[in-house]
Structures are given as C-alpha cells and as structure tokens.
Automatic annotation (TrEMBL):
InterPro entries: Isochorismatase-like_dom, Isochorismatase-like_sf, Isochorismatase_Nicotinamidase
The family this protein is said to belong to: Belongs to the isochorismatase family.
UniProt KW keywords: Hydrolase, Metal-binding, Pyridine nucleotide biosynthesis
Pathway annotation from the record: Cofactor biosynthesis; nicotinate biosynthesis; nicotinate from nicotinamide: step 1/1
Pfam families registered for this protein in UniProt: Isochorismatase
Lineage: superkingdom: Eukaryota
UniProt domain Isochorismatase-like: residue ranges: 13-226
Protein name as annotated: nicotinamidase
A molecular function (GO) term: nicotinamidase activity
Biological processes per GO annotation: pyridine nucleotide biosynthetic process
C-alpha cells in the first residue's frame, strides 16, 4: 500500500526517537540487533522535522520495576502494582481515568540516573534534540514518552508538540513492543496522526503482536525509512 502523506509537512511534523540508550543496545537490558537501527535513525534525523525529540528511560536506583528491589523475586517475574497513594491524592476532580491494578514485569537494573547506561549510544546524532526523560518516579513505570498508564504524571511532551503546532509524529527506536508501542498509542490517543517506521525499530519479542495492536488503534506503519527519505514532501 502506497505511503499516504496527505496533510504531512515538515512544519507540522515531529520525530520521536525512543530510548536509544546504552543499556538497551549493549548493556543490562540489551535488545537484540538494536545497534542495526542507529544509522537509519540518523538518516531520518537529517530530515527537516519541525521538532526532533529523543527520550531517555531515567530511573532512580530504587525503581519499582527493578527485580532486585523486590525480595524473593527474579528478573522477568511479574507482580501487580497499584497507583501510588501520594499521587492519587493530587488528582483533579475532572480526571476520571480508572486507577486499576497493573501487571509489571520485573527488569534487570537499567538506565539508572547518572550512570553510563542511561546515556545515548555512541553514534546516535542526538546533538540538538529535545530530551524527554521518563520513568523518573520511584513507584511508577512509564513506558510511554507522554505519561504513565494511570495519567498521574506526564513528561510535558504533549504540550511541547502542541506548542509547536505539530499534527504528525513519526516514532522510531527501542523497544517496539514496549516504549515505542506505548508512545505511539498515546500519541494517537492525544489526536496526533501517528506513524511508526518499522525498519527503525527493534523489539524484545519476535512475536510481532505490537504491530497488529498499533494498526488496530489507527497508528500507521511505514515499512522502510527510505519511503520518507525519498519523499518529495521531506526533500530539502
């Protein structure tokens, strides 16, 4: 199916580079072959997007998602987590999002604040990109670049996009079945036309269910970065 870029212009488009960090490429939670997408992402970053954003997982050492912080639990076990009471108490009356319990995978320690693992990988041309940090709260996991699953905290990304009058977002990075997917679904939910570029994404699992889930939600999948790189719309 031909790529439909109707209404897409550089002036109303942003690229979101998700979590291309040392720990996800060669460190404690490395995604297989993640280094293979770096050159593709760099090529996309040469296009004249109105806004270019890079996210960082940015956890405190005692983060709830780390297996070592749960007695008797092993890496990749699952637990049930609940919204932190101190943040629930700050909710505004108009916020009606349900505060249900969520399943949480327990991960190896990764992307801890002020460590080498949290840094962008060597080779990623991240100079000049706006940086959004997520997962900073001890008691909340935040896969999405926009907000946590309960909507109790947000990163400011939605406002940043709105202030730049962005209508279209292009999502790339790591991992397709976690942070890329969550970011794309939230972008679509917030009213942005959302694209994910398949050959600029690496996932943890080979199952591929994330692509079906995103497509069902209305996210548009671009098979290759070359489709954008050769598009007249983005020619400079």
């Amino acid at each position: 199916m031909p790529l439909d870029l109707a209404s897409v212009e550089p002036s109303n488009s942003a690229i979101l580079v998700i979590d291309v960090q040392n720990d996800f490429v060669s460190g404690s939670l490395a995604v297989r072959d993640a280094e293979q997408i770096i050159n593709t992402i760099n090529a996309l970053l040469t296009l004249p997007f109105a806004l270019k954003v890079a996210t960082q997982d940015y956890h405190p050492a005692n983060h709830i998602s780390f297996a070592r912080n749960h007695t008797g639990k092993k890496e990749f076990d699952k637990i049930t987590i609940f919204p932190p009471a101190e943040l629930v108490a700050k909710r505004t009356p108009e916020d009606e999002r349900p505060l249900e319990a969520l399943e949480q995978v327990l991960w190896p320690v990764h992307c801890v604040q002020d460590t080498t693992g949290v840094a962008f990988v060597d080779g990623l041309k991240h100079e000049g990109l706006e940086v959004i940090r997520k997962g900073c709260d001890v008691g909340i996991e935040c896969y999405s670049a926009f907000e946590d699953p309960w909507g109790l905290t947000n990163t400011g990304l939605k406002d940043k996009l709105r202030n730049k009058e962005i209508s279209n977002v292009f999502v790339v990075g790591i991992a397709g079945d976690y942070c890329v997917k969550s970011t794309a679904l939230d972008a679509k939910k917030h009213g942005f036309r959302t694209f994910v570029i398949r050959d600029a994404v690496k996932s943890v699992s080979d199952e591929g269910t994330e692509w079906t889930e995103m497509t069902k939600a209305g996210v548009e999948i671009i098979d290759t970065a070359e489709e954008l790189l050769t598009s007249k719309i983005f020619s400079q």
